[in-house]
Write a structure and sequence with these properties.
The protein has 222 residues and is mainly β. The protein is built from two helices and twelve strands, in the order ββαββαββββββββ. Residues 24-219 form the Prolyl 4-hydroxylase alpha subunit domain.
């Protein structure tokens, strides 16, 4: 059952939701994470970063750094509760531990899926139903999140979209805007993964470039 934390006063985030794609469902949530929450998460994570992994090992396809926020961190719980409420009061027990991912020059996460394919899981286990990818810091250009299987043509769209997405890209690239999050639904109604949701984290290219993202995953029994 969903419940809001009662032992800690959660900060209210006044956010704006814009739907980028109806199928697959991809939404941009502006101001989903508050400045105070951003600073807190960055401080908690700083001493916890280790080399990012895929499965149980390291790989050249993902050379960023990863840190996990303790499950009892009150601000982390508030952010999870906000993500649960956004999805229609999801059970907080279905939320994975919050994960921060830090990218510096040339660090990336090549195209991948957040969900596991059918041959990787057994019936009666959990798979990642949804993803929020929040941005805590971005001092880089062209280091957004790319969806290579989703074609995009913004020529005839409102030009205000161009501060949210890369309007010059042939496929969907969401720009890294601090405080904002991109939300998408990984699984189809039958519980299988949506193959269109292949995505990757583009690398900062400048020497001083850096991007810190926040992964919020919600699980579903399949």
């Amino acid at each position: 059952m969903w419940s809001r934390p009662t032992h800690f006063a959660c900060e209210r985030a006044v956010y704006t939701v814009r739907t980028i794609s109806y199928y697959p469902l991809i939404q941009h949530i502006e101001n989903f994470i508050t400045p105070k929450e951003i600073e807190h998460l960055k401080q908690v994570a700083e001493a916890r970063y280790t080399r990012s992994t895929i499965g149980v090992g390291v790989s050249d396809t993902r050379n960023s750094s990863t840190a996990y926020i303790p499950a009892d961190d009150p601000i982390g719980i508030c952010i999870q509760a906000r993500a649960a409420e956004f999805q229609g009061y999801m059970n907080l027990k279905l939320m994975e531990t919050l994960q921060l991912t830090k990218y510096t020059k040339d660090q990336l996460f090549l195209d991948h899926y957040d969900f596991k394919h059918n041959d990787e899981i057994s019936p009666g286990t959990y798979n990642r139903e949804t993803t929020f990818f929040g941005i805590l810091e971005a001092t880089c250009e062209e280091c957004g999140t790319r969806f290579p299987r989703i074609q995009a043509n913004w020529t005839h769209e409102d030009p205000r979209w161009c501060r949210i997405v890369d309007c010059d890209a042939a496929d969907l690239v969401v720009k890294p805007t601090p405080g904002s999050a991109t939300f998408w639904v990984n699984l189809l109604p039958d519980g299988t993964g949506n193959e269109d949701l292949l995505h990757g984290g583009l690398p900062p290219q400048a020497e001083s470039g850096k991007k810190i993202g926040l992964n919020i995953w919600t699980l579903k029994l399949v």
